[in-house]
Specification:
Helices cover 28% and strands 29% of the residues. The chain contains 6 helices and 10 strands, in the order E-E-E-H-E-H-E-H-E-E-E-H-E-E-H-H. The protein has a 5-stranded mixed β-sheet with strand order 3-2-1-4-5, sandwiched between helices. It has a 5-stranded mixed β-sheet with strand order 8-7-6-9-10, with helices on both faces.
């Protein structure tokens, strides 16, 4: 199965073509990753087309789409999920959303870590998105958003042996890659979904915060 994998939950705009074999083996055929957190909309589709060209396939040959569902900022995350949904609709293929932290974990535990794994990424506002995983990349807790000092207080009770993501150096754990979701990691996190043949559920973004923009309140009368 040829799978197109996308993620815009972090400043890394990722697109790639991945082959999923019947035995569950995941092979990344091509990937395009550009680090620019302000240009998700401008960079994603050119990355998709370039990755397909690098892999020697056309969009019509893609059989499924996997997209990172966050957690991430509202605007960037929406770009990836809307693009994935549009491609799935246009091509008539299933679209599966996965937690972007799960994708990082799926890559990071590949060589074995001897314990649990922390995955953390930048949530801005001096906070981090994080989740903890066992040695098989199964999520144990999270995803959650909070300040790094609050997370540091939890670490002794999580049985952690390593950490991965973009904001983990400060926690005193051995650091493993990657810092952001890769196409291979996204598909590895979705192997069971893709292999089941089940109808995908609705795409639900993990914002973990309310949006900054709110509807305006009722206008106050000018004349008392």
């Amino acid at each position: 199965m040829l799978v197109l994998a996308l993620d815009t939950a972090t400043p890394a705009v990722s697109a790639g073509v991945v082959r999923l074999d019947p035995d569950g083996t995941v092979a990344e055929l091509a990937a395009r990753v550009v680090h620019d957190g302000r240009k998700h909309g401008e960079l994603l589709m050119p990355g998709v087309l370039a990755a397909c060209a690098d892999a020697g396939v056309t969009l019509r040959e893609i059989e499924a789409v996997v997209v990172g569902a966050g957690p991430g900022p509202f605007t960037g995350l929406r770009v990836g999920m809307v693009t994935a949904a549009s491609l799935g609709d246009a091509l008539g293929i299933p679209v599966h959303g996965v937690c972007s932290l799960d994708a990082i974990a799926a890559d990071a535990v590949g060589d074995g870590i001897g314990g649990n794994l922390l995955v953390a990424t930048d949530a801005r506002r001096r906070e981090v998105y994080w989740a903890a995983y066992d040695a098989e990349a199964r999520r144990l807790t999270g995803p959650t958003v909070e300040r790094p000092d609050a997370l540091a207080e939890r670490i002794p009770g999580l049985g952690l042996a390593a950490a991965a993501g973009s904001l983990v150096e400060q926690f005193g754990l051995p650091v493993r890659g990657p810092q952001a979701p890769t196409p291979r990691g996204l598909v590895a996190a979705a192997v069971d979904l893709l292999g089941s043949g089940a109808e995908p559920g609705p795409l639900e973004p993990l914002y973990l915060r309310r949006p900054d923009a709110v509807p305006p309140g009722e206008r106050k009368p000018v004349i008392a």
